[in-house]
Specification:
The protein has 474 residues and is mainly α. 46% of the residues lie in helices and 10% in strands.
Length: 474
């Protein structure tokens, strides 16, 4: 019987959810969810000086924004310290680990001598095979007995088979002299106890796998499937850092990128399914597999991100888009929209969402429905409200009052007016945009009139016809 797939995301709460960490979480989520498995979350908070509740909250908020739900409770690695220490003592009792009484000064002296003699500085403890009767009454660490010959093969689903000579492995410390477990032990014990079947993480952890395998094998535990994914680089090919721009997942939320577009882009960043660039969550869950992950670092490209986000805006359900819009406003410190404005946005989205790439972009294009009378035209719109333009609006408005308030009806009236005045519609479009939105760049004037409705549209046209550019107000 095939075991249920169990993956985990295990960030350290020392800062925000890095965009690279977000991608790692996404890959784990996709792999588990696509196979009916479990996706677990563990906070690796053993570094008490650097771990903060604020960082943990930021990680949880970032995952929540991305829609990466996890199974069960959030697990604290620090709270499992007793269990980790228990495993170290178990290995000691089995003779697979030993007490090492070497002091820091002795270890430093050993390495200094080894460097001077051109030898390996890998520490070899004299206490490995010492008779317990010779043990002093002094502080000690517990070290695992690493294999000293042969090789360790990491069978990695992304990197392939990676072979490491065992004489390159040291007798890793499991338990410090103060009785606290080390991170490398805690990770293995937690993954085993959580039933993790697949460890999908950054390839900066690849060398750790060989050392962690020593613990799995010493305890007789099943070794998980390894998948070490390349890191994300900036456009210049160097490791993604602050100089390339935003690094935290929440920064992208505050900048207004839709979560669906971000998921699509992050999934595509280092993984591929043929030539597909745009895909839905359902497709990603169906297609995602470890063999689609490349070995080379992926390069973060903001233009590609924006392009994908634009495509997701275009196909999004109105209700979902408006819900995320409100969440964006809260995240960016703005006031959420009133029910009335949300209703107006709902009417307007059909002519807005296929032109936006971010929520600020959407809000700007929706200015005509979000603003209130009296409108304050911007400088570009002002130029379209000169005396000639206001004269056109003054004559056109009474004719629109009797128009059938449909696209065909509105087009028929304005086209007949343009023909009678022997002017092109383009000559009328500028003043109409300025009157209806107070902007020079807007959706179609007919879309705006349909969304605003007869009464509001006519009221704006009448105010614009009376607008005094000198006074700057109607």
């Amino acid at each position: 019987m095939t075991r249920q797939v169990v993956t985990r995301f295990a960030p350290s709460p020392t800062g925000f959810l890095h965009i690279g960490g977000a991608r790692t979480a996404l890959f784990n989520w996709l792999y588990a969810r696509g196979r009916g498995g479990k996706f677990l979350l563990r906070i690796e908070d053993t570094d008490r000086e650097r771990s903060t509740p604020e960082a943990t909250a930021a990680i949880l908020q970032g995952l929540d924004w991305l829609g990466l739900d996890h199974d069960g409770e959030v697990i604290s690695q620090f709270e499992g310290a007793d269990r980790h220490a228990e495993v170290a003592r178990d290995l000691l009792a089995q003779g697979k680990a030993y007490k090492c009484f070497a002091t820091q000064d002795e270890i430093a002296a050993f390495r200094e001598t080894a460097r001077a003699e051109g030898k390996s500085t890998l520490y070899r403890s004299p206490w490995r095979d010492a008779d317990p009767a010779t043990h002093p009454d002094a502080p000690y660490v517990i070290r695992i007995k690493a294999p000293q010959d042969g090789t360790t093969v990491i069978r990695d689903e992304v990197q392939g088979d990676v072979t490491i000579r065992n004489d390159q492995l040291d007798d890793m410390i499991l338990l410090r002299s103060d009785g606290t477990p080390v991170y490398m032990l805690a990770v293995v014990v937690d993954d085993h106890d959580m039933g993790v079947t697949h460890v999908i993480r950054g390839d900066d952890h690849l060398n750790n796998a060989a050392r962690q395998m020593m613990i799995y094998e010493a305890m007789g535990w099943d070794v998980p499937v390894w998948a070490h994914i390349p890191l994300i680089h900036g456009p210049d090919g160097k490791k993604l850092s602050k100089r390339h721009g935003a690094l935290g997942a929440q920064e992208y939320q505050v900048m207004g990128y839709p979560a669906a577009g971000m998921r699509n882009y992050l999934a595509r960043l280092g993984w591929s399914h043929g030539d597909d660039e745009f895909f839905t969550d359902a497709q990603a869950l169906d297609w995602f597999d470890l063999d689609g992950i490349g070995k080379s670092p992926a390069r973060f490209d903001t233009k590609k991100l924006e392009n994908l986000c634009g495509q997701h805006f275009a196909v999004a359900e109105n209700a979902a888009l408006l819900h995320e819009l409100q969440a964006f406003l809260v995240a960016s410190g703005e006031t959420p929209l009133s029910d009335e404005k949300i209703a107006g946005m709902d009417r307007a989205l059909y002519c807005l969402k296929d032109r936006a790439k971010t929520f600020p972009d959407l809000i700007e294009k929706a200015y005509f429905i979000l603003t209130d009378r009296p409108l304050q035209p911007d400088q570009k719109a002002m130029k379209n409200l000169d005396s000639v333009s206001r004269g056109i609006l003054n004559e056109l408005t009474p004719q629109l009052q009797n128009a059938s308030w449909t696209r065909d009806g509105l087009e028929a009236v304005t086209n007949a007016f343009a023909e009678a005045k022997e002017i092109k519609f383009g000559k009328m479009a500028g003043p109409l945009r300025a009157a209806l939105a107070g902007r020079a760049v807007t959706p179609s004037v007919f879309d705006m009139m349909l969304v605003l409705g007869r009464d509001e549209s006519l009221a704006r046209l009448e105010e614009a016809a009376d607008f005094d550019p000198q006074a700057g107000e109607a």
